[in-house]
Specification:
Jelly Rolls
């Protein structure tokens, strides 16, 4: 009997110890959850502090803008790659030149400063920067050019939208298409040297003749070459589904023109959805050369010391130029159509040429900027 009592007491002590171990283990688990909760709370506070800091920075920038000081963001090295999406969030722009949007990468190189541009954040074309002008793009029998018509040119959703559409003119049954006349800076902004960059959705489709180009016929700068004027085509889309074509031209008073024989086009490797994608295009113009870029890749360079036609000289390529945006098409009434190409395909309308932003950078002390 005595031995049975001892065994029973021993078992009770062992069971009591196990219960204490379980209680201690539960206490530790509970304590661990509390600790984890505290650490999460600390992290949330840290994020809150960062957000507060960013808010303060934004406030400081706004105050600087209100005081008339510039708040450009010229350091774009930390910005992520440009997206092919047409939507993006932007910080609220200050009253002066907007700073670089934080989620769009600019391919501008070191030393350049933002001097002019448009983010298209409003609800109409900025008349201080742009005009819609006739005389640069020629209408044709079945195509009419319209100005101040939101069906073919408007600013919305943070984009400048230039569209080619079907069009019915009750006064002229031949008219079948409409597009915007040129959107240009002939009387608002001329410049000499710099890096021009824009992000755009280009209608790479059969029948399109979209282009971003420049001429030295602006009204603000001073021309040195009076026996001809120049044309620089950052690109033209000659009814192509995958290729951008750059050119240099000289135009003479008799209407004749010459063209640089150096021709390196840019062809996209994947054009399955190209007409719906946004890409970044650029042109760097220095006293020595003109280079073209797509998504930061330099694909062609023109040496400005080489007189490509043997006529006159090259001083015209050191005259101020102005910018032109066109969304033209080839139709059955076109005076010419690119070889191995075709005219507009009605079932693919509208042809959408949309700009996310256009920015001009210059290096201090190099070139000139003329604004009205």
């Amino acid at each position: 009997m005595y031995r049975k009592v001892i065994v029973i007491l021993t078992l009770c002590l062992v069971l009591a110890g196990c219960n204490r171990s379980v209680d201690d283990s539960s206490s530790k688990v509970s304590s661990s959850k509390v600790s984890s909760s505290k650490e999460s709370g600390s992290e949330a506070t840290s994020v809150g502090e960062v957000e507060s800091s960013e808010t303060q920075t934004s406030s400081d920038n706004s105050s600087a803008a209100a005081n008339g000081s510039s708040s450009y963001n010229d350091d774009v090295s930390d910005l992520p790659p440009a997206s092919s999406s047409s939507t993006r969030s932007r910080p609220s722009p200050p009253s002066s030149m907007p700073s670089e949007p934080e989620d769009i990468k600019s391919y501008v190189t070191a030393g350049y400063k933002l001097v002019w541009g448009d983010e298209f954040d409003g609800n109409k074309l900025d008349s201080n920067k742009w005009k819609q002008g006739f005389g640069h793009m020629i209408p044709q029998g079945d195509l009419i050019l319209l100005a101040d018509d939101p069906r073919v040119c408007r600013v919305e959703d943070g984009l400048l939208k230039m569209d080619v559409i079907h069009y019915y003119d009750p006064a002229n049954s031949v008219i079948e298409y409409a597009t915007s006349c040129s959107v240009e800076t002939q009387d608002t902004m001329n410049y000499l040297y710099g890096y021009l960059e824009f992000r755009a959705k280009v209608p790479y489709k059969i029948g399109t003749w979209s282009s971003v180009w420049m001429k030295s016929t602006g009204t603000l700068g001073i021309r040195k070459a009076l026996d001809y004027f120049i044309e620089i085509d950052l690109f033209e889309i000659f009814s192509s589904t995958d290729t951008a074509y750059p050119h240099l031209h000289k135009w003479f008073p008799d209407g004749s023109a010459t063209e640089s024989k150096i021709q390196n086009n840019y062809t996209f490797q994947n054009n399955f959805n190209l007409a719906n994608e946004f890409h970044v295009y650029g042109m760097e113009w220095t006293p020595d050369e003109i280079s073209m870029y797509v998504n930061g890749e330099k694909y062609t360079t023109y040496d400005l010391s080489y007189n490509f036609d043997g006529l006159s000289d090259m001083k015209g390529f050191h005259d101020p130029i102005h910018l032109l945006l066109d969304n033209h098409i080839f139709t059955n009434f076109s005076s010419w159509v690119p070889m191995d190409s075709g005219t507009v395909i009605n079932t693919q309308l509208p042809y959408e040429f949309h700009f996310d932003y256009i920015r001009l950078y210059q290096k201090p002390g190099v070139g000139a900027l003329y604004t009205k």
